[in-house]
Amino acid sequence: MEMINEDHNIRITGKRRLSLALFINYFVHGMVLIILMQNMLSLAHSWLTSIAVVSYVISGIGIGRLIAYPITGILSDRLNRKTFVLIGMILYIIFLSTMPFASNIVFAYTSAIIAGIGNSALDSGTYTTLVEINNGSGRSTVFLKAFISAGDFLLPLVIVFLSTHHMWFGLSFMLPALILVLNLINISSIKFPKVREIQQEETDSEVQISPIKKAIATMGLLVYGYTSMALMLVFTQWITLFGSKVLGLGLITSHFLLSLYSIGSITGVFMISLILKTKRCEEILVVILNLATVISLLIIMLAHNQLIVELGSFLFGLSAAGGVMQTGLTIFMKLFPKHHGTVTGAFYFFGSIASLTVPIITGFLSTKGIDVAFSFSLIISLVSSSFVILVMMIMKSTKE
């Protein structure tokens, strides 16, 4: 009996150490997501070019994702999760350690593409591992969002500190690179679960569904991969201008709307995690949160009271950016228990399409007016809600 308890404690300790290592990677990932945008002026000065060219280089990350997601997803199912986590970390280290020294745009754009591929490899190995070590629960994947937000929050403070003390901007790249190097040493000695053993356990309880319904649900979840990412992109890109130009709010208040979105996002992470800890109800939870997103956008667009608009921004962050996208991926994995990596790659491939197309679409719409560009988020939200309701109905029918 003592031997059994000891083995159980070892497994629990290994699981916690693995989870923490993966969370640390996504703390750095949160920094990587914004590091080029936050250093645009410094990079433009270093390359003797314009901010517009730096913006063009940033698009390389999206290109890297689009190229890699279909490949890394499939291969992570056939090889092993740890390999792709390590590949993702190494590629991020290469990106972070070379970008400040980039001497020309071609080199910089190549480095950005490497970051996009690293992002893809990291997602394919991480989301699948967290779901698999938690018996199919997506609760831990929701926590990734909290660590991403923490990285988003810390990096601008680091950059301000470096600027204030007249220190080299490249140190903002070296810090996350150092964290990854240390975590790479740590994670190299951690044992990952074997994919085939996990897949066999989940296949035994595989969702029984007709091919037609499965195809419809798959289409709905792929669309959701696009819409869930698109919603966050439209909001973060346009809420400040919408607040100041359309709602007539002050500049500080308009920026505060984005801060409230971030606070709502972190609140949503803990709320969703708590709910999923007590009950496995991913399908109904995603529907409720999507409908709450529609309501929050209507509040922001129709209300003429500052406090109510601020409440709407908080609610949007909680419902649309608190981990609901990751919860949608967990539902997708239930449909294909033997292909977690492939599903993750496909889901985030559609999210990457949103990253490329949404700025173009909203940029065109903004020529008609800032309110028109922001209203695109309501259309996306309605489409998103329609598809997740359809998926929930299909998944519910398999349990009856």
UniProtKB/TrEMBL annotation:
Keywords: Membrane, Transmembrane, Transmembrane helix, Transport. It holds the Pfam family MFS_1. It is found in: Cell membrane. The chain crosses the membrane at residues 20-41, 47-71, 83-102, 108-130, 142-162, 168-187, 221-240, 246-272, 284-302, 345-366, 372-395. The keyword Membrane applies. Residues 18-399 form the Major facilitator superfamily (MFS) profile domain. It comes from the Bacteria. It is a multi-pass membrane protein. InterPro entries: MFS (IPR011701), MFS_dom (IPR020846), MFS_trans_sf (IPR036259), MFS_Transporter (IPR051788). Its main location: membrane. Belongs to the major facilitator superfamily. This is MFS transporter. SUPFAM superfamilies: MFS general substrate transporter (SSF103473).
